[in-house]
Amino acid sequence: MEELRAVNYDDIKAAVLAKYNVTEETYRLQFRSLMVLSGETLRETYNCIKGLYRRWMRPETKTKDQMRETIILEQYLRMLHPDVRVWVKENQPQTGEEAARLAERYVAAHQEPPRTNKDSTPIRQKPYRVPEKMVEKLKTEVKMMLEMGIMEPSQSEWSSPILLVPKKDGGVRFCTDFRKLNSVSCFDSYPMPRIDKLIERLGKAHYMTTLDLCKGYWQVPLEPSCRPYTAFRTSTGLYQYTVMPFGLHGAPATFQRLMDGILAGCDQYAAAYLDDVVIYSQFIVSYGKNTLNIFLTY
What we know:
The protein has eleven helices and eight strands. With 298 residues, the chain is an alpha+beta fold. It is elongated. The two termini are 51 Å apart. Keywords: Endonuclease, Hydrolase, Nuclease, Nucleotidyltransferase, Protease, RNA-directed DNA polymerase, Transferase. This is ribonuclease H.
């Protein structure tokens, strides 16, 4: 009798979960977005996390290797570009290795041919004079950027001048004059957000968080074949950028496209204007959940 009841219970439970489309993915999302409820004790929070984990992982039906693959696969999918992630998930990979192969296939199929300059004749400009009192500051900036991997020694035929602009805090801003390079480069027409439209989206919001990304452009790596175009000359040698530098006329469009892709699917509560991100909501509960979702997912 007890055995019969157990079988019936399992059948009923499976039918209910199927009717409401409750899957392992449902529990995974709940596990990742769980928040402490008002009045909930620390022990209750722990038990809730533990219960969601067991429903997601189902350790009684999986080996340790299978659970490890599940976690690796989930983390890998979270790191993919939204477009790539959607396509990879549609193909239902079972392991991180399968997901990586699918992602490579997608990127290879959608990769655009490299854009070339309007005029491929190398531009070599004479360096600007650096005042003697700023020479040491220039050397310090070069050393710091080399250590950070922002630039590297170059053997390029191209060369743009640099200049140091004093900042209010007493430091200097390292600037590269790319005007000549920009004049022979292809323009990227990706649209920038309209400020008035962004303000309209915030109209009913009572809660907001703003994020200012640190050196946002430097988070975008340059293709090795494009690095020689960014070469610049200093008193210590010829260098080129390994990441997207400030001053390229295509940089804002490239970065805005990146941010729009990262925030895809979050346009109901988040927006970006270049490296400035705003998360907003009319209600405190959804505001906390949305903010947490941005940090966990992206």
